Inverse folding.
């Protein structure tokens, strides 16, 4: 269990990245959803010991992550949002390097571990290829491999599927799902489907604050019967926005499809639809100064 | 479109703090150069104004050496920006034309770099206007010179470098290749510079140097001070060629960058990449669903685990560096630099030295020098920022390895780079030695040399790592590094030369085959340890400041550093190293400033100025006794670095009045244990200026004699800041009486001589030497004013395995046990005739070669490792004795002894009575295997032997022109011996070097140039110019006439008592003995400063029916006179000049040259045509083809003949 208490961070340029975040994250996949600039990466980096908060604490079971950074680094795996590679180094050598840096100092152990990890992420066939030649998806899988070194109890994955094609994305998510139940895995993303597909628990963060914490299914269920959809004409959109709580406006087949949150039908042409996580997400984002909802 | 891109670039640059920082730093450099009176970089010395046009040009040329830094920051940065920040594709999808894009990026960067240089020039200008400067050393602001520099040097240099860097950056998209280009650029310049010492290779160097500085030097080499103050160099000849060549190269590079530029993802596809499969590797299709069990691992965190991580990270980083193509290229470039150093260093008049291992020490250090520093700077930046540049940092930083692992790995990688360079250098030197047939390799010595050479670089590496770590970004780190390099070079120039505050420096550590590293090693190592302690502290600080995780402000990092230090063992290491630093610093200070004296340059000058102000008026003309006999017991203890002297003078009052006071001058570092002479009292002690005034109880009557006894002790105490000046060493002690024995009277040599210094300290102008007709001055010889001809006797003792030598005949030699000292080796020497008062004592472990010429014993005392040229020296001595006794006068002694002394005592040979000490680096290791090379061993030996006549028989009075009678006549004598041995062709080669040296040195004149007969101990005149002048005299008058005159002169003047003779007396004799038609020639050669400008403008030949050839030569001949500061007046040619026609042998070499015709002809002033007929096919013609006349361009005297 990862216990985050009152984490705050303000950057030198005045940006309030985190405003007193408190969160409990149990074992298993946890989705952290939020728009760009919400504070996700700041939160991820702070947990990954790369950054110090202004105030607050983070405990993984009984380990204080902020106080003992070295111990923290031995128990976590981090796949950052943007990571580069040494282009001329092969996958095997690179993974071996990270394993060494993490503390797998015995040569035989390391060799066995590297092989197992590469097989796990299905890059064993490509172990002699240089990382500079890897596609985006292969690189992300490699990233997971290094995050898994040393059987960490906490894995932080920051925006992993951005830029992957659908097949690569599937492969990646499958991999992530197999990581294990005894591990806290925080998946930080702005792609709602990732959370829907993978995470039994989630939180929505926006402008440095938590908007919603709970189970996706519960959150979805709480919107049941309140989401209306209509394929509208472009000219109607402005009026709709003014009069109703518009969740999203998406183009389907080139025509705008509007989702509106309301207890009653907003009008002509609207049908009730089963809500999805996207609706929950946009709903939270649109809620101005609304209290954080704690679902059961 | 282009204009808008440029505007965008300009805005970007002007808002970049880096640009302003760099601009301000450069501006300050410029300001400091001009505003500090002490700095005379660029040639603003003596009569040359500090802001003379040429000085300004030299300064700006020197600054453009820093343009690689600018170019790297602004141009490479601009070129790579789009790719690193991934904005590239944004640009390439707009309708922007490739040309506009590239020119815009390039133009922007170039403008920025030029902007910085403009600020630098502004700094120079403002600096020169500062009110505290000595106004008489400044001239009017040379606006044209500033413009000229920019147009010819600064901007083209930037342009070329920018083009190179831009091409590399856009094509390769890697900063490392960019650095490579920059380093290659610098190396070319160094290589070209190394070629300047060889006259024939100079033009190659001038063209090859991309900075243009060598070409500039070529054009201005012979400029006088007046030239430097008024002229602008003409853009012609080699300079024009150089600029055209490199501008052309710049254009080609830009074109290449333009054509080969690819806006797509892959950039330039090099052939190598095609072999590897295409960019996107095909992925495996199916993911198996079976879970693979990961082995159970426990992550280690122990110190031993950290150690292994460190080793691993080091190997990883090292592999990255060593396997990169840039590194290999840098290594090759470094070897190239070393090669040119090897080829040209140690050369004297174009003849090389044997590649002995001790010489390789110079090569290694010289070759590595600045080059390796730059390599380290580049890699320090690359390594420290590696993870961040590649964006691996976040992953790596989240791993559990401690901070110090990364830092230590990068530092050790740098150290390994140093080791690789040193090893490669050593290997290269060994190969060079073997290739030149030298097989005495001495691996142990190499190991020591390499280690000692590497240490300073290790210290530098630590500092660079520290600077990069605390910097916010890589380029700021580079800036700090550049500032450090400039400061390290600049502080000594500005007069701050104590090694205690100049990071990484120490005192010189000379290496001699005779003495090894000697006792200089320990102080050198002490300095290394001192800075090493600081380096350790810096590394600990770097670890504390090491960037981990997201970038923080400097204040945050400082806080974090304090926290890190507080909780780790790092603080103990930091404390310990700082303590060691302070302790060693105190120990060093105790040695350099307490046990010995340290004077900064300014303090030293001030002292000398005070000495004169306080004492000259009162003491200069005070009558003093003369020494008529010297008897000394000198005990040399090489192991203790100690000498004990018990000495006796016989003094005589040769003045016409009583002497009431003795002014006794004795070096302040010598301890006086006893001083006994007639009753006296020390009335004034001036320890700083090394003299004491004793007032006699009873004045010494005229004609009276007195005994003067003393006991002295000289001991090396610790070490001094300036380093290796000890006369006493383990093997190769060399003392002379001016350094170690007392002298009488006011010592003029302790005054300031440089006119500018004198003005600065408010001293009046005093003549450098007394005027030639000053009878009072002629009462003294120029050797010294407290003795004439003396009797000399000495007993010198030394260690049992050494030989001690002194002028005089060996009376007795024995070994005895001395209580308290052990076994000692004694030598008793005595002269049986009077000699001039210049004596020495030497002691070393020598091998001896003995030979005879008639009944004169010839002995060469040499280090057993240097037997190479001993035979040559003996041979030269024999031939010299033969020639001189036949042509001048009998040799006054029964022996000639040549002694080898270690190179750090100096690079010269010197003549005492029948004793000639000879430096190991001059002659003993000359490589004379190539018969085409000038045999300077022969020449120097002949010159020194000649001094036994010119100085030890005839000695001039202490007035102008005195050295003409000793040095110039010795040069002449040696030239004659050489010519008889080697022929006229080698003469020409030799005279060319002498002429070049004379012309080159004129601009370094600090007071005023003089004609030869009036020269004031000006070396470039009494050696170099004299060679040409006297050879020319002999050429016109005939060898016999000249020799007969010299013989008559000796007959009249040898061993004379004061008033001593002068150069005018010789010239009067010459005029009296020769036809009056030679009087104008004698005047031109000796009484005036005369220059010729002779050249062949064209030469044609036509074959006649009778097989002979008609040759038509167009010549230009001009004569000019100049005053001492370089102002010229025209003259008229009044002597015939050699006209020569030459053929060549089948091999086409100059050595096989045959003279078809050589005769002296009257040549008109200006242009004229000469027609001749010769019997065979002519190859080339010449006016003054043997360079017998002082001509400012000796290269255009000959020309190849075009056959019609």
């Amino acid at each position: 269990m990862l216990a985050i208490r009152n984490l705050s961070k303000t950057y030198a340029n005045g940006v309030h990245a985190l405003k007193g975040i408190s969160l409990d994250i149990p074992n298993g996949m946890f989705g952290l959803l939020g728009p760009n600039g919400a504070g996700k990466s700041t939160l991820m980096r702070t947990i990954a010991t790369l950054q110090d908060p202004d105030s607050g604490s983070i405990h993984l079971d009984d380990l204080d992550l902020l106080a003992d950074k070295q111990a923290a680094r031995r128990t976590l795996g981090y796949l950052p949002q943007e990571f580069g590679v040494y282009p001329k180094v092969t996958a095997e050598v690179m993974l071996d390097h990270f394993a060494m840096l993490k503390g797998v100092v015995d040569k035989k152990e390391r060799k066995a571990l590297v092989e197992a990890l590469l097989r796990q992420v299905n890059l064993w066939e490509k172990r002699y290829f240089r990382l500079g030649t890897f596609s985006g998806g292969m690189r992300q899988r490699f990233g997971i491999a290094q995050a898994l070194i040393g059987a960490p109890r906490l894995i932080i994955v920051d925006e992993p599927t951005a830029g992957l094609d659908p097949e690569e994305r599937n492969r990646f998510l499958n991999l992530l799902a197999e990581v294990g139940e005894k591990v806290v895995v925080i998946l930080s993303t702005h792609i709602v489907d990732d959370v829907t597909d993978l995470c039994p628990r989630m939180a929505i963060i926006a402008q440095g604050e938590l908007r919603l914490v709970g189970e996706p299914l519960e959150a979805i269920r709480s919107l049941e019967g309140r989401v209306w959809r209509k394929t509208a004409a472009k000219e109607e959109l402005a009026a709709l926005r003014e009069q109703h709580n518009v969740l999203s406006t998406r183009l389907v087949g080139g025509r705008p499809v509007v989702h509106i949150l309301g207890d009653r039908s907003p009008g002509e042409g609207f049908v009730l639809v089963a809500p999805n996580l996207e609706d929950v997400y946009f709903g939270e984002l649109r809620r101005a100064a609304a209290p954080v909802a704690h679902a059961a | 479109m282009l204009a808008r891109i440029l505007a965008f670039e300009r805005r970007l640059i002007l808002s970049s703090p880096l640009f302003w920082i760099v601009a301000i730093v450069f501006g300050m450099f410029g300001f400091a150069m001009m505003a500090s009176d002490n700095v005379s970089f660029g040639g603003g010395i003596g009569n040359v104004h500090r802001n003379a046009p040429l000085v300004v040009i030299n300064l700006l040329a020197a600054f453009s050496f820093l343009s690689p830094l600018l170019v790297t920051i602004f141009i490479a940065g601009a070129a790579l920006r789009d790719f690193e920040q991934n904005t590239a594709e944004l640009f390439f999808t707009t309708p922007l034309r490739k040309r506009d894009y590239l020119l815009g990026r390039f133009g922007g960067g170039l403008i920025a770099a030029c902007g910085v240089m403009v600020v630098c020039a502004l700094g120079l200008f403002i600096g020169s206007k500062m009110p505290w400067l000595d106004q008489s050393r400044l001239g009017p602001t040379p606006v044209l010179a500033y413009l000229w520099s920019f147009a010819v040097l600064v901007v083209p240099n930037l342009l070329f470098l920018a083009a190179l860097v831009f091409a590399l950056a856009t094509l390769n998209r890697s900063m490392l290749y960019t650095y490579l280009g920059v380093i290659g650029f610098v190396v070319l310049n160094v290589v070209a510079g190394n070629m300047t010492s060889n006259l024939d290779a100079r033009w190659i160097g001038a063209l090859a140097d991309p900075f243009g500085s060598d070409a500039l030097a070529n054009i201005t080499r012979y400029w006088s001070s007046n030239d430097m103050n008024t002229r602008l160099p003409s853009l012609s000849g080699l300079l024009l060629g150089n600029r055209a060549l490199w501008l052309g190269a710049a254009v080609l590079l830009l074109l290449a960058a333009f054509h080969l530029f690819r806006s797509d993802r892959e950039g330039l596809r090099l052939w190598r990449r095609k072999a590897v499969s295409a960019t996107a590797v095909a992925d495996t299709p199916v993911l198996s669903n079976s879970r693979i069990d990961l082995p159970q691992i426990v992550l280690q965190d122990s110190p031993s685990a950290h150690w292994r991580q460190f080793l691993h990270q080091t190997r990883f980083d090292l592999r990255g560096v060593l396997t990169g193509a840039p590194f290999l290229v840098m290594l090759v470039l470094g070897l190239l630099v070393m090669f040119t150093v090897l080829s040209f260093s140690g050369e004297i008049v174009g003849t090389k030295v044997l590649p002995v291992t001790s010489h390789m020490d110079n090569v290694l250090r010289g070759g590595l020098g600045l080059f390796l520093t730059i390599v380290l700077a580049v890699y320090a930046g690359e390594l420290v920022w590696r993870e961040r540049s590649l964006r691996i940092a976040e992953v790596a930083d989240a791993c559990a390895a401690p901070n110090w692992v990364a830092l230590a790995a990068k530092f050790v990688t740098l150290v390994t780079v140093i080791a690789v360079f040193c090893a490669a250098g050593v290997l290269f030197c060994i190969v060079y030695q073997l290739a030149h047939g030298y097989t005495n390799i001495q691996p142990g010595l190499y190991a020591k040399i390499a280690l000692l050479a590497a240490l300073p670089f290790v210290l530098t590496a630590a500092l660079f790592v520290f600077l990069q770590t605390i910097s916010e970004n890589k380029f700021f780190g580079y800036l700090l590094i550049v500032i450090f390099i400039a400061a390290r070079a600049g502080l000594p120039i500005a007069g701050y030369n104590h090694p205690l505050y100049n990071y990484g420096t120490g005192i010189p550590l000379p290496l001699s085959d005779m003495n090894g590293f000697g006792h200089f090693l320990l102080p050198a190592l002490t300095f290394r340890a001192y800075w090493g302690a600081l380096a350790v502290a810096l590394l600990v600080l770097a670890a504390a400041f090491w960037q981990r995780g997201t970038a923080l402000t400097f204040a945050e990092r400082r806080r974090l550093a304090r926290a890190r230090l507080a909780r780790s063992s790092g603080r103990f290491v930091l404390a310990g190293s700082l303590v060691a630093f302070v302790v060693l610093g105190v120990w060093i200070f105790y040695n350099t400033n307490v046990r010995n004296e340290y004077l900064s340059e300014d303090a030293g000058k001030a002292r000398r100025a005070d000495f004169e102000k306080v004492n000259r008026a009162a003491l200069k003309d005070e009558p003093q006794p003369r020494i008529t006999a010297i008897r000394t017991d000198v005990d040399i203890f090489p192991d203790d670095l100690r000498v004990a002297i018990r000495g006796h003078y016989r003094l005589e009052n040769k003045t016409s009045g009583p002497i009431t006071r003795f002014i006794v001058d004795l070096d302040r570092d010598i301890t006086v244990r006893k001083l006994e002479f007639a009753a006296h009292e020390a009335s004034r002690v001036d320890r700083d200026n090394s003299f004491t005034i004793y007032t006699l109880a009873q004045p010494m009557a005229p004609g009276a004699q007195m005994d003067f006894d003393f006991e002295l002790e000289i001991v090396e105490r610790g070490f001094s800041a300036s380093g290796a000046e000890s006369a006493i060493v383990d093997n190769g002690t060399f003392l002379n009486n001016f350094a170690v024995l007392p002298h009488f009277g006011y010592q003029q040599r302790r005054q300031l001589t440089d006119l500018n210094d004198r003005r600065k300290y408010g001293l009046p102008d005093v003549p450098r030497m007394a005027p030639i007709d000053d009878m009072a001055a002629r009462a003294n010889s120029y050797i010294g004013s407290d003795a004439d001809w003396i009797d000399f006797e000495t007993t010198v003792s030394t260690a049992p395995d050494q030989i001690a030598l002194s002028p005089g005949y060996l009376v007795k030699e024995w070994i005895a046990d001395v209580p308290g000292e052990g076994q000692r080796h004694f030598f008793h020497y005595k002269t049986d005739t009077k000699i001039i008062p210049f004596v020495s004592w030497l002691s070393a472990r020598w091998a001896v070669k003995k030979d005879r010429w008639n009944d004169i014993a010839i002995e060469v005392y040499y280090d057993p490792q240097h037997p190479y040229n001993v035979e040559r020296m003996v041979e030269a001595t024999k031939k010299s004795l033969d020639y001189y006794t036949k042509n001048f006068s009998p040799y006054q002694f029964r022996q000639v002894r040549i002694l080898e002394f270690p190179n750090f005592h100096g690079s010269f040979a010197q003549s005492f009575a029948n004793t000639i000490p000879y430096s190991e680096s001059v002659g003993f290791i000359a490589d004379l295997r190539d018969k085409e090379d000038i045999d300077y061993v022969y020449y120097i030996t002949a010159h020194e032997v000649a001094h036994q006549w010119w100085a030890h028989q005839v000695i001039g009075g202490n007035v102008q022109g005195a050295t003409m009678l000793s040095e110039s006549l010795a040069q002449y004598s040696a030239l004659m011996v050489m010519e008889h041995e080697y022929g006229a062709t080698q003469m020409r080669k030799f005279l060319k070097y002498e002429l070049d040296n004379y012309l080159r040195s004129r601009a370094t004149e600090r007071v005023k140039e003089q004609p030869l007969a009036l020269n004031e101990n000006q070396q470039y005149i009494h050696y170099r110019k004299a060679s040409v002048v006297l050879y020319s005299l002999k050429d016109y008058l005939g060898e016999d006439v000249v020799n007969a005159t010299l013989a008559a002169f000796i007959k009249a003047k040898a061993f004379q008592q004061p008033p001593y003779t002068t150069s005018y007396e010789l010239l009067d004799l010459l005029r009296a003995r020769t036809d009056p038609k030679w009087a104008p020639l004698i005047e031109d050669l000796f009484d005036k400063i005369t220059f010729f400008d002779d050249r062949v403008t064209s030469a044609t030949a036509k074959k006649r029916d009778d097989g002979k050839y008609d040759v038509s030569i167009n010549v230009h001949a001009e004569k000019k006179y100049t005053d001492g500061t370089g102002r010229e007046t025209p003259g008229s040619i009044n002597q015939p000049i050699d006209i020569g026609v030459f053929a060549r042998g089948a091999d086409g070499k100059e050595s096989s040259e045959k003279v078809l015709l050589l005769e002296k002809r009257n040549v008109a002033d200006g242009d004229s045509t000469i027609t001749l007929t010769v019997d065979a096919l002519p190859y080339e013609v010449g006016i003054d083809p043997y360079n017998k006349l002082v001509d400012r361009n000796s290269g255009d005297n000959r020309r190849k003949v075009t056959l019609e």
User: Anything to note?
Assistant: Residues 107-120 of chain A form the longest helix (14 residues). Confidence is low (pLDDT under 50) at residues 288-296 of chain A.
